[in-house]
From TrEMBL:
UniProt feature, compositional bias: Basic and acidic residues: 75-85
Record GO terms (molecular function): DNA binding; sigma factor activity
UniProt protein name: RNA polymerase sigma factor
SUPFAM superfamilies registered for this protein in UniProt: Sigma2 domain of RNA polymerase sigma factors, Sigma3 and sigma4 domains of RNA polymerase sigma factors, TPR-like
GO terms of biological process kind: DNA-templated transcription initiation
PANTHER family attached to this UniProt entry: BLL6612 PROTEIN (PTHR47756:SF2), BLL6612 PROTEIN-RELATED (PTHR47756)
Family: Belongs to the sigma-70 factor family. ECF subfamily.
Signal peptide: none
UniProt KW keywords: Sigma factor, Transcription, Transcription regulation
Organism: Amycolatopsis eburnea
Boundaries of every RNA polymerase sigma-70 region domain copy: 18-78
Domain RNA polymerase sigma factor 70 region 4 type, residue spans: 109-160
Domain DUF6596: 178-278
Length: 410
């Protein structure tokens, strides 16, 4: 990869949401913002290799995208609409801040997560507009066809335009009812960064995890007493703390039990633990993100995998199942069961999830590991093959392949 190609890739990771948000603020149209941003990046692909990478790529992309947007509006507007055209060309002054925190990307998230949109549409649109994920990446995250996801995003943008949904952070009284959808999106953005679903991207994308953490901190400043906001921030910090130990030198995903815990970020862990203790001291019944954060606090408290308090982990999963009785939570609970009651008991629990998780590669990977521990090599190999076929991330595929090959001729 050339220097220009690397710069374009980095700029897309770091600047996409900023460019789209700036254009949305100015033109008030998500379609125009997205298409102009995409055209600006396409122009960079054409020009940067020969002209060189500009000193400030983000500013170059924003300026270019603004021009692209104006060109499009000129083409689509009536010829006699000269006054509006002149305003587009000369009125570059930003509007007054529209919320308690003046952050374009936070406004964009709340716009995409408006309650007038269906939940699936909110999630998909925000992952596209704020996370910069491609339609195939989002489709994989939701286990739906690319065409279905593309239509979902298109309809969501059209509804925002037709309903004149404002581009702003909601007022203080509206925030609590809007924040749950925003947290769900930020969690998905973080997860995509922590373990990307696509085969043609970096296995771990720090730009996405950093942006999700930054935006969650801003929301916590807006809602400091909201336990789930604090819980999600703690969960992100405790997960991000392990990022540097997640990939081996050869680019293979490293499982929790094999990670070098000395490489974990002690400052992030300390902050995450403090937030978990703060919520426990509140005496308020925890929500889903708070319980997930508590589970991660137990894991990051152990200096060695053998020191993990699995009984506490299982008790927390039992609590989580009551809040979120999803098959994925049940699958993760089975991992803790394996440590306490043995792999055979856990395998039986996993088996009951097959009809609901047949297309979910962690199901097959978990089942393969349990079969391996029970010495059932042929069945383990078949389960690893299923997981490898479904996994999209190259680092995860490499780890699964190694584990399968370690079975030898069994």
């Amino acid at each position: 990869m050339t220097d220009a190609e690397e710069a374009i890739t980095q700029a897309h990771h770091e600047e996409w949401a900023r460019v789209v948000a700036a254009l949305t603020r100015r033109f008030g149209d998500l379609d125009i913002a997205e298409e102009a941003a995409a055209e600006a990046f396409a122009t960079a692909v054409e020009r940067w290799p020969s002209d060189g990478v500009p000193p400030n790529p983000g500013a170059w992309l924003t300026t270019t995208a603004n021009r692209k947007a104006i060109d499009r509006i000129r083409r689509e507007s009536k010829r006699d609409d000269k006054q509006k055209e002149a305003q587009l060309v000369y009125d570059d002054d930003p509007p007054e801040p529209l919320g308690a925190i003046d952050d374009d990307r936070l406004r964009l998230i709340f716009t995409c997560c408006h309650p007038a949109l269906a939940t699936e549409a909110r999630l998909a649109l925000t992952l596209r507009m704020v996370g910069g994920l491609t339609v195939p990446e989002i489709a994989r995250a939701f286990l739906v066809a690319e065409t279905t996801m593309g239509q979902r995003i298109t309809r969501a943008k059209a509804k925002i335009k037709a309903a004149r949904i404002p581009y702003r952070v909601p007022s203080a009284e509206d925030l609590p009812s809007r924040v749950s959808g925003v947290l769900a999106v930020l969690f998905l953005v973080f997860n995509e960064g922590y373990l990307a679903t696509g085969p043609d991207t970096d296995p771990v994308r720090q730009d996405l995890t950093a942006e999700a953490i930054r935006l969650t901190r801003l929301i916590r400043a807006l809602l400091p007493e909201d336990g789930e906001v604090t819980g999600l921030l703690a969960l992100m910090l405790l997960t991000e703390a392990r990022r540097s130990a997640r990939l081996s030198a050869s680019g293979e995903l490293v499982a929790l039990d094999e990670q070098d815990r000395g490489a974990w970020d002690a400052e992030l862990i300390a902050e995450g633990h403090r937030l978990v203790r703060e919520r426990l001291a509140s005496g308020v019944a925890p929500g889903r993100y708070q319980v997930l954060a508590a589970i991660n606090a137990v894991h990051t408290s152990a200096r060695d995998m053998r020191d993990t308090d699995w009984s506490q982990v299982l008790a927390l999963y039992d609590q989580l199942v009551r809040l979120d009785p999803s098959p994925v939570v049940a699958l993760n609970r089975a991992v803790a069961v394996a440590e306490l009651d043995g792999p055979e008991v856990a395998l039986a629990a996993v088996g009951r999830l097959e009809s609901r998780l047949a297309g979910y590669h962690p199901f097959h990977a978990t089942r393969a590991d349990l079969l391996r521990r029970l010495g059932r090599g042929e069945e383990a190999r078949a389960a690893y093959d299923e997981a490898i076929a479904l996994a999209g991330n190259t680092a995860e595929t490499a780890a699964l392949t190694r584990r399968r090959d370690q079975l030898g001729g069994a």
